[in-house]
Design goal:
Blueprint (H helix, E strand, L loop, with lengths): L1 E7 L4 E7 L4 E9 L6 E6 L6 E4 L5 H13 L12 E8 L10 E2 L2 H9 L8 H14 L5 E5 L9 H4 L6 H6 L8 H15 L7 E6 L5 E6 L2 E5 L21 H10 L3 H10 L2 H6 L5 H9 L3 H25 L4 E5 H6 L1 H8 L21 E2 L8 E4 L4 H13 L1
Parallel strand pairs: 1-6, 6-8, 9-12, 12-14
Antiparallel strand pairs: 1-2, 2-3, 3-4, 4-5, 7-8, 9-10, 10-11, 13-14
Helix pairs in contact: 1-3, 6-14, 10-11, 11-13
């Protein structure tokens, strides 16, 4: 079965068409500037030419129509008709407490996703736009919602409950939810495959490190804690997000400079993190270059990031009573040997030792720990689209 995976943003739509018989991507692409002027890049993986051009996308519906036309066209296509697309899997960012796993999309599912909009005001409406556009164009094709938050719903109350008046949890659902769950699920599962183990008795820490970063503690194959919270703002510093800070800082800055709550959150989400610390960039490659040239604030940003990730690794090892593997994934985790080395340095007390030669790897599965390391240090490229496709296949079958 061929499954179309859709990741809809407010003005963009990423997609992959995956043949689930062999789990190979047969086409992928990106629609950008939806509602503005529109641009599509479509890449068939069967040797046919790449299509890239400006197109008119007033709404997501026109973008979906263009994607389906390219997938089935003589010149750029990879399937002969839409009948060869067996199902559509949609990434949905926030499932709240409504969803503990992926779900077939029907009217009840859509209503539940709508109820979660207050928790994901930037993402869930865009995800719903993509879902409705596909329903309109492909009314007979099964659709599945795969939630970023679902993998983390196995956390125990002591991990997900905030120490604020309990009524805010009971009445408003304020709790730790966590994000990047599809990535954490894929990477922890792949780690078990590489270790040749089943989930029972295993303790894995997944470090999803990129412009957005989060860690998870995965015990017996289930998440027991994660760094992001009610929103993706919590946890370690990120490209532009602050991560955990003293909440009183908000009141101090707002009172001094007269900022509204929205302005303050914009600072924490878009002007903080390693960008705010360095004053250089939110891109870790730019920070590496600047630090190598003697920029002390860029070096501080890198050191701060590695330090905070290291602290959470230690905390999660304590929470699980040990750790079998530390897994690095996403843009920074998969590609930055220096950042992996900085993070693991000092974790010898856990039995974690990184091999500098083995660590010279980018973007492929690898075990980069020394032969005598008690903890396996692993690099595992994430594949959220494949995880979405697998969940979709299991539900439509």
């Amino acid at each position: 079965m061929n499954i179309l995976v859709i990741n809809a943003g407010s003005s963009s739509l990423k997609y992959q068409l995956i043949n689930m018989d062999n789990e190979e991507v047969i086409a992928k692409g990106l629609c950008e500037r939806i509602g503005i002027d529109g641009h599509l890049k479509h890449t068939p993986m069967n040797g046919k030419p790449v299509f890239e051009s400006d197109l008119s996308f007033p709404t997501h519906a026109e973008a979906i129509t263009a994607v389906l036309e390219k997938l089935t066209s003589d010149e750029y296509g990879v399937v002969s008709s839409m009948d060869e697309i067996g199902a559509v899997g949609h990434r949905v960012v926030h499932g709240g407490m409504e969803f503990t796993k992926s779900a077939l999309i029907d009217d009840e599912c859509i209503a539940a996703i709508e109820r979660c909009i207050p928790f994901g005001p930037l993402h869930n409406p865009a995800n719903l736009i993509g879902i409705r556009a596909c329903q309109k164009i492909m009314p007979k094709t099964p659709q599945v919602a795969v939630f970023d938050t679902a993998f983390h719903m196995t956390m125990p109350p002591k991990a997900y409950t905030y120490a604020i008046p309990y009524e805010y949890y009971e009445k408003d659902g304020i709790r730790r939810y966590g994000f990047h769950g599809t990535s954490h699920n894929f990477v922890s599962s792949r780690a078990l495959e590489m270790l040749g183990k089943g989930p029972e008795g295993t303790k894995i820490i997944v470090c999803h490190l990129g412009n957005g970063s989060s860690l998870s503690a995965v015990k017996d194959g289930k998440c027991i804690d994660t760094t992001m919270g009610l929103t993706p703002l919590a946890g370690v510093p990120m490209g532009t997000r602050s991560g955990d800070i003293d909440p009183s800082i908000l009141e101090f800055i707002m009172n001094k400079y007269g900022y509204s709550a929205s302005e303050m959150l914009n600072i924490l989400n878009k002007k903080s993190g390693v960008l705010g610390l360095s004053g250089v960039s939110s891109d870790f490659r730019d920070l590496d270059d600047a630090a190598d040239k003697g920029n002390e604030r860029a070096r501080l940003a890198l050191d701060k990031f590695a330090y905070e990730v290291k602290k959470f690794i230690g905390a999660y090892a304590a929470a699980m009573g040990g750790v079998d593997a530390i897994c690095f994934t996403a843009g920074v985790g998969e590609n930055s040997a220096s950042m992996r080395e900085s993070i693991v340095e000092g974790l010898e007390y856990l039995g974690a030792k990184i091999d500098p030669e083995k660590n010279k790897v980018r973007g492929k599965d690898a075990i980069v720990s020394t032969d005598d390391s008690k903890v396996k240090i692993m690099v595992i490229p994430t594949n959220e689209e494949l995880m979405i496709a697998r969940d979709t296949l299991s539900l439509v079958k």
